[in-house]
Amino acid sequence: MIVVDASVWIDYFNGRSTPQTDRLDDLLGLEPILTGDIVLTEVLQGFKHERDFREALKLLSLFEFREMMGRDIAVASALNYRLLRAKGVTPRTVDMVIGTFCIENGHCLLHADADFDPMERYLGLDVVR
Q1: Is the Cβ–Cβ distance between 109 and 127 less than 8 Å?
Q2: What residues make up the domain containing 53?
Q3: Domain total in the chain
Q4: Is 128 within a domain?
């Protein structure tokens, strides 16, 4: 299962062509895509126009949905955050939760956010190339 981070969806909905949005285009319809509550919030909160908001919600509703934050992920995220802090890295909390969710559930992450790079390096986050 592939989790697509908000960093990619935002570029995708804004019509930006990046390696990650191109990869998303390649994956759509071929690979199972998962979206989660945190990613959904990050993506949808940025729309200025109601029509665009509704269209994005309709598209994102086509994918499997999971709640990303619960007690187990909260504790694992805190542990992972502490490990990265000990290595001199300070990721954003929301990215820490998304990355930990992927690690704990064996999902790959498609992203365009440097906060995930140390998670890949030190925590074994599997990313889509």
Answers
A1: yes
A2: 2-123
A3: 1
A4: no
| Tokens matching residue 86 | 């000990």
Residue 48's domain is classified under what CATH number?
A: 3.40.50.1010
Ramachandran class of 29: left when φ > 0, alpha when ψ lies in -120 to 50, beta otherwise: left
Please state, in angstroms and as integers, the Cα–Cα distance from residue 78 to each residue in 23, 58, 129, following that order: 31, 33, 27
| pLDDT tens-digit map of 60-117 | 999 999 999 999 999 999 999 999 999 999 999 999 999 999 999 999 999 999 999 9
Structure tokens at 123: 């925590």
Note the pLDDT tens digit of each residue in 49-72. Answer: 999 999 999 999 999 999 999 999
Kindly state whether residue 129 falls inside one of the protein's structural domains. Answer: no
pTM score > 0.90 for this model?
yes
Q: How far apart are CA 62 and CA 127, in angstroms?
A: 22
Q: Is residue 26 in a domain?
A: yes
CA-based nearest residue to 7, from 99, 120, 123, 105:
99
Relative to beta strand 2-4, strand 33-36 is parallel
Asked, for residue 72, whether it belongs to a domain, the answer is yes
Q: Could you tell me which of 37, 120, 65 has the C-alpha nearest to residue 128?
A: 120
